[in-house]
């Protein structure tokens, strides 16, 4: 809005800008309204915010053959990035900020700092991926260097478009870096049948963020009979136990998982 010279102190001008912006989806407009609402609270501006309905859509989840086709058919750096996204479930920005010191070769793990108010994680990786990462040039402290992530997105887009045409599979063009996270989440749930373990692996603070995958994977009937909660220290764990919650497990990030029957 600032780039478009919108007067942020004039709520009516802001509402008009949001309403007339044809390049924004309704979901993006919802986020804009939330952001401006926080700005108004800070500046003590009164306004009647417009209402936009968020149109819920299901994430696109590729098959393993499709993810592997992209990994095999793209350039060295892109394919290594895709393999890492497939094995870790990290957001691409989290992986892009990983440093060489975040790799533990003895444990075969890589750790990331969290984005979007999530949680930092450490994930095991295959020997194959570890070898591919070590083949990348060590020009600075970052594994994938300091080139532009947007530039990498453009390169991937060009390569996957050519590959989709070559393999006669237009679905490949729907796959973005974040799509590998959707693939990881659904695959990991199929293996564990535990939504709270998926939540921990994805680094979601709220389990509601993970629940979107219930529309893709059929969650077992028993898990739907429980509420879920987490504790980060002994005090929080004690409070949950006192209130009838049952301990389940502790994640590699030392987050304790609890559940209570509905």
Describe the model.
By secondary structure, the protein is mostly helical. The protein folds into three domains: 1-55, no CATH class; 64-181, Orthogonal Bundle (hpI Integrase, Chain A), CATH 1.10.443; 193-261, no CATH class. Helix content is 45%, strand content 10%. It is built from eleven helices and six strands. It has helices at 11-20, 26-43, 64-73, 76-88, 92-96, 127-134, 149-166, 179-192, 195-202, 207-210, 234-242; strands spanning 103-104, 109-112, 121-124, 226-231, 246-250, 256-261. A three-stranded antiparallel β-sheet has the order 1-2-3. A three-stranded antiparallel β-sheet has the order 4-6-5, covered by helices on one side. Helix 1 (11-20) runs antiparallel to helix 2 and helix 4 runs parallel beside helix 8. The longest helix is centred in the N-terminal third of the chain and has 18 residues, at 26-43. The termini are far apart. Mean pLDDT is 85; it is low at 217-222.
Question: Can you tell me the CATH architecture of the largest domain?
Answer: Orthogonal Bundle
Please give the alpha-carbon distance between the first and last residues. Answer: 45 Å
**Residues in β-strands, percent:** 5-15%
The rounded Rg comes to 21 Å
Q: What shape does the CA trace take?
A: globular
CATH topology name of the largest domain, in short, is hpI Integrase, Chain A
The assigned structural class equals mainly alpha
Question: Helix-strand pattern, N to C?
Answer: HHHHHEEEHHHHHEHEE
- Number of domain modules: 3
Approximate helicity band: 40-55%
Characterize the biggest β-sheet. Answer: 3 strands, antiparallel
Low-confidence stretches: 217-222
Number of helices: 11
CATH superfamily of the largest domain: Intergrase catalytic core
> Residue-averaged pLDDT, rounded?
85
Strand order of the largest sheet: 1-2-3
Number of strands: 6
Q: What is the class of the largest domain in the CATH system?
A: Mainly Alpha
